[in-house]
Imidazoleglycerol-phosphate dehydratase (Longicatena caecimuris), 193 residues
Amino acid sequence: MRLAEEVRTTKETNIQCKVNLDGSGQAAVATGIGFFDHMLTLLAFHSGFDITMQAKGDLEVCDHHTVEDCGIILGSCVKQALKDKRGIARYGSMNLPMDETLANVSLDISGRSYLVYHCELKRDTIGTFSCEMVEEFLRAFAFQAGITLHVNVFYGTNDHHKVEAIFKALGRALGQATQVIGDALPSTKGMLE
């Protein structure tokens, strides 16, 4: 089993996270931000990862620290659980429709952190979740996990649908990329860093 568990404590947040890459898509998530909990639950389901996350953050200030730190700890756990990355598919990509929206997430578990993000959102918030935090979460996750991540929402009118399509597509792409398909390191360099 590819498992990782971590605790992250700062003056702004206290987060416990556990990830099983070989799970069944189960989630037990409580961050204090309802819409974000829903998105992380979708990410778990569509990736096939089991994700447990309990977060207490300074939500009286805003949601920024909590969402960003959840991205950091989730990325760190995924990286740890992948160990030396031997045998993984490495690449994943998903075009995902949600009603009027079409989103694509493509990624490479390369060891080289990068984020390309193209998504226009009109709303400031969805519930108590700040829409600007979608990009911040994705950046924190990708940079901590060592993933090259491209996120493109081609079209859509409903911001809820756009964000949901991103998280579902991210889950599907991660599920593809982390599949064990052999025993070789998937790099002609002989390393993924």
Notes: Strands lie at 3-9, 13-20, 27-30, 50-57, 91-98, 101-108, 114-118, 125-126, 129-130, 148-155. The first strand starts at residue 3 and ends at 9. Residues 64-82 form the longest helix (19 residues). The domain at 3-177 is CATH 3.30.230.40 (Ribosomal Protein S5; domain 2).
